[in-house]
Automatic annotation (TrEMBL):
Protein name: SIMPL domain-containing protein
Gene3D superfamilies, per database record: Protein of unknown function (DUF541), domain 1, Protein of unknown function (DUF541), domain 2
Record bears the keyword Signal: yes
Span of the signal peptide: 1-23
Protein's organism: Alteromonas pelagimontana
Keywords carried by this UniProt record: Signal
Pfam family for this entry, one: SIMPL
PANTHER family assigned: SLR1258 PROTEIN
GO BP term (any one): DNA damage response
Record bears the keyword Signal: yes
Length: 232
C-alpha cells in the first residue's frame, strides 16, 4: 500500500503546484490592449467568376455540354492573354430540376452548374474579357472584384503597424495610471481583414463602364498583454 500512497501524494502536490502557478499567472498585474494596423493598397488585378449551366434529364449529357462550354471559355481566355494558371475550374453542383405543372411541381431532371474563376493583372481589359466570355457560352457572371496581388506583403506591414499601435496604447495607459510598463506577457494575433471594392452581376449590368478600382484596406489586429508594476 505504501507505493500507492506515495504516488497519490505526488499527484496531489503536483496539482497544488500547477494551480498555484496558474493563479499567479492570472493575478499578475498587466495591461491588455488591442493593437490595429491598416495598410491601403491599390488593386492591380481583377478576379471574376463565370458560371456555366445546363438542364436536362441525363447527367452524362449535361456533363458533355458543360465540358464543351468550359473548353470554349478556356480557349477564349488563353487567346486573350490570360495564363493557364490564372484559370481555375472550381466546384461543380448537381441539383434536381423542377418544372411547374397543373398538379404542382414536377421533377424534370437535373441542373448541372460549374464555376470558373479567372484572375488577371490587366485591369484595363476586364470588360472585354467579360463580354468575350459571355459570347463564348458563359451563362452568367457570379462575382467580380478588383484585387491586390501582393496582399501578403501588405498584411505583414499592417501587422508591424499593429504592434506599434499596441505599444503606443500600452505606454499611454501606463503613464496615465502611474505604473511602469514591463515586458510582454502574451500576444494573440486576431488575423486579417480585407475591404475591397466588389460588384455583383446586377451592379455590373447597371454601370460597368464607370467602375474604377479603388483602394483596398488591409487590416491586422492583435491582443497584447504587458506586465506592469507600481513606480517607486
Amino acid at each position: 500500500m505504501l507505493p500507492v500512497i506515495t504516488r497519490t501524494a505526488f499527484i496531489v502536490v503536483a496539482c497544488i503546484i500547477s494551480a498555484a502557478a496558474f493563479a499567479e499567472n492570472v493575478t499578475k498585474p498587466a495591461i491588455n490592449v488591442v493593437g490595429k494596423g491598416i495598410v491601403a493598397v491599390v488593386p492591380d488585378a481583377f478576379s471574376v467568376t463565370f458560371i456555366v449551366e445546363e438542364k436536362g434529364p441525363k447527367v452524362a449529357e449535361l456533363n458533355k455540354k458543360i465540358q464543351l462550354k468550359v473548353r470554349n471559355l478556356t480557349t477564349f481566355l488563353l487567346e486573350s492573354g490570360i495564363a493557364e494558371n490564372q484559370i481555375q475550374s472550381m466546384q461543380i453542383q448537381l441539383n434536381p430540376w423542377y418544372e411547374s405543372a397543373p398538379e404542382g411541381r414536377k421533377e424534370a431532371g437535373f441542373v448541372l452548374m460549374r464555376e470558373v474563376r479567372v484572375t488577371h493583372n490587366n485591369i484595363d481589359n476586364y470588360d472585354a474579357i467579360i463580354d468575350g466570355a459571355l459570347s463564348s457560352g458563359v451563362d452568367r457572371v457570379q462575382q467580380f472584384e478588383f484585387i491586390a496581388s501582393k496582399q501578403d506583403n501588405a498584411y505583414q506591414q499592417a501587422l508591424i503597424n499593429a504592434v506599434k499601435d499596441a505599444k503606443s496604447r500600452a505606454t499611454l495607459l501606463a503613464k496615465e495610471l502611474d505604473v511602469e510598463l514591463g515586458s510582454v506577457i502574451a500576444v494573440h494575433e486576431n488575423g486579417s481583414s480585407y475591404t475591397m471594392p466588389m460588384m455583383r452581376a446586377s451592379a455590373m449590368r447597371e454601370d460597368f463602364a464607370s467602375a474604377m478600382p479603388g483602394q483596398q484596406m488591409i487590416e491586422a489586429s492583435l491582443n497584447v498583454s504587458f506586465a506592469i508594476s507600481t513606480q517607486d
